[in-house]
Design goal:
This protein is an alpha+beta fold. It contains 23 helices and 19 strands. The radius of gyration is 28 Å and the shape is globular. It starts with a helix and ends in a 6-residue tail after the last helix.
């Protein structure tokens, strides 16, 4: 066992000896079982040196002083080959020691996985994560069913392969830890979940909570938590999520059983998962840098007095990538609003968002929805906004990101902004702009740029001509051209390979209840107003031609 953990950390025997202040030969005796660690103090020293998070201490206490770690090391020798069938390995380990508590197995990536026979949990050792059950590691069928009784991990990781689920040990009231993936700028986000059986009653999901105290302790913690209801019917299981803070006031007693009610609109699918993914990623990152971001924004206000500026990320070195995104987006929005009244003719807009990660900022950043409304009011008329989204980008984007892009465009169409699209990758490098054709242009770019932002107001003929031609080309050959907003959005859904009727139905369901019950933001820089407005608009569209 000690050898497996040492090798998982890439340590030599001499390096472990140095960390534990013992001789090389003593480490050798620990590992071969000739002289196992003699007392708890020695085990604690080894546990800290191997960054095991208390795992070795727990193991030593469970096995007892008579057997100690040496016999488990003997068991490990039976299963050092990763090609050995895990069920056979478990049997050998149990036979080698009267208890056979833990058996190590090395995965292809070098991680050591430990199987606990008595608790039927998978314990992963290494990288300072302590002991945790890991979804997706091969187990005997009975153990897998006990670890995932609702098929929750199996279902969700099959639907969204980037999602990582793990069983905490000890669990402290948490059934699953979920690590949502990051993106090109997003950093990833962690959720804690409790999963309970549930049943459908009309448009409601009634979640049965067997342990009131455990649920209340979970729901009152300040972490981001989800209460999930699992409905097992004749077909595949379905899961419904409720934000932990929203669930706090919904826990009621009915006939001796505690229950929480949620709308069926909160079923976990590509729509709700995409919203959870985007809000959690943006919200956590912005909240983490809240004070520093506020101070940096004040420091950078001096650039507002300039008509042109290009500010690198080094101007805010301590901020994360999402905070840089928010600063760039906010500055560009205010730059455009200042310049817009002085443009001589009705302008055309060009935006660089291509994927759901970038486009969801229109739905989530607190200044974006108000900015769209203010530009519409300032122009006093409809306007156009062009996008360049090549087919390769569509093919490489997961469905939930394509849905977020669709919702961002729907939000614009709801305000009378006509969205236009080109699939020609030659336009990918065009900066974000607002152009009064053949006269003047406002440059405002923060998406996929070299710095936090690049802004300018220019009448240079070469620049104005480039932007004018790009806007006219897309206007003439938009792949979503149609006389109505519904027609344009339907064409966009087809291009993004999204089912039109499903979008209208699901967005309408979610709009009836709002997204805040599904996921609530903590950061003051994040708002659900854009998501709810977009869903309400899509839900109101006709399903026919």
């Amino acid at each position: 066992m000690i050898r497996e953990l040492r090798e998982a950390h890439g340590l030599s025997m001499r390096e472990l000896a140095a960390r534990t202040f013992v001789s090389h030969s003593k480490v050798q005796r620990w590992e071969n079982g000739d002289r196992p660690p003699k007392d708890l103090g020695e085990v604690e020293l080894i546990d800290r040196a191997l960054d095991a998070g208390g795992f070795l201490i727990e193991l030593w206490q469970e096995i007892g002083r008579d057997s100690q770690l040496g016999h488990v090391s003997d068991a490990a020798s039976h299963v050092s080959d990763t090609s050995l069938d895990l069920v056979t390995a478990l049997s050998q380990a149990a036979a080698s020691d009267g208890k056979g508590i833990f058996v190590p197995r090395r995965l292809d990536d070098g991680t050591v996985v430990l199987v606990a026979l008595d608790r039927r949990a998978l314990l992963r050792a290494g990288a300072g994560i302590g002991a945790a059950a890991v979804a997706g590691i091969p187990m005997p069928a009975s153990a897998a069913a006990a670890e995932d009784p609702f098929g929750f991990a199996k279902s969700l990781t099959a639907s969204w392969p980037g999602l990582r689920l793990s069983r905490p040990s000890p669990e402290f009231g948490v059934d699953w830890h979920a690590l949502l993936p990051g993106g090109r700028s997003m950093l990833g986000s962690q959720l804690s979940l409790q999963v309970h059986p549930a049943r459908i009653d009309g448009r409601r999901v009634i979640v049965s909570v067997p342990d009131q105290r455990r649920a209340e302790e979970f729901l009152t913690r300040p972490h981001r938590g989800l209460l999930v209801g699992a409905v097992n019917t004749a077909g595949p299981p379905t899961f419904y999520a409720l934000d932990g803070r929203a669930a706090r006031t919904k826990l009621t007693r009915s006939g001796g059983v505690y229950e929480v009610t949620a709308p069926t609109a909160y079923e976990l699918d590509d729509l709700t998962y995409g919203i959870l993914w985007a809000v959690s990623n943006y919200d956590d990152a912005l909240q983490a840098d809240d004070q520093a971001l506020s101070e940096t924004r004040s420091d950078l206000r001096a650039y507002e007095r300039l008509s042109a500026s290009a500010v690198s990320r080094e101007a805010a070195p301590g901020l994360n990538t999402v905070a840089h995104m928010w600063l760039g987006s906010d500055f560009c929005a205010r730059h455009i609003l200042r310049a817009l009244p002085d443009l001589p003719t009705l302008p055309a807009f060009w935006t660089r968002e291509q994927r759901g990660e970038e486009a969801s900022s229109w739905l989530i950043f607190d200044h974006k929805f108000p900015y769209l409304r203010e530009t519409t009011t300032a122009l006093g008329s409809t306007s156009t906004r062009a996008f360049c989204i090549p087919e390769e980008v569509v093919r490489s984007s997961p469905r939930y990101e394509r849905i977020l892009l669709f919702l961002a465009v729907a939000l614009m169409e709801s305000l009378g902004i006509h969205a236009q699209f080109t699939a020609d990758p030659a336009y990918e490098a065009v900066e974000g702009f607002v152009v009064a054709p053949d006269k003047e242009a406002v440059i405002a770019n923060w998406v996929r740029g070299d710095g936090m932002w690049h802004v300018d107001v220019t009448a240079r003929s070469s620049v104005v001509r480039e932007f004018t031609i790009a806007a006219r080309d897309v206007n003439a050959d938009s792949i979503t051209a149609a006389p109505t907003a519904a027609g344009r959005l339907r064409a966009l859904a087809q291009y993004l390979e999204l089912p039109w009727s499903w979008l209208i139905d699901r967005c309408g369901q979610l709009a009836r209840y709002g997204s805040s019950g599904l996921v609530q933001s903590r950061s003051r820089l994040v708002s659900a107003a854009g998501i709810d407005a977009a869903c309400a608009y899509v839900g109101s569209l006709p399903t026919d031609h």
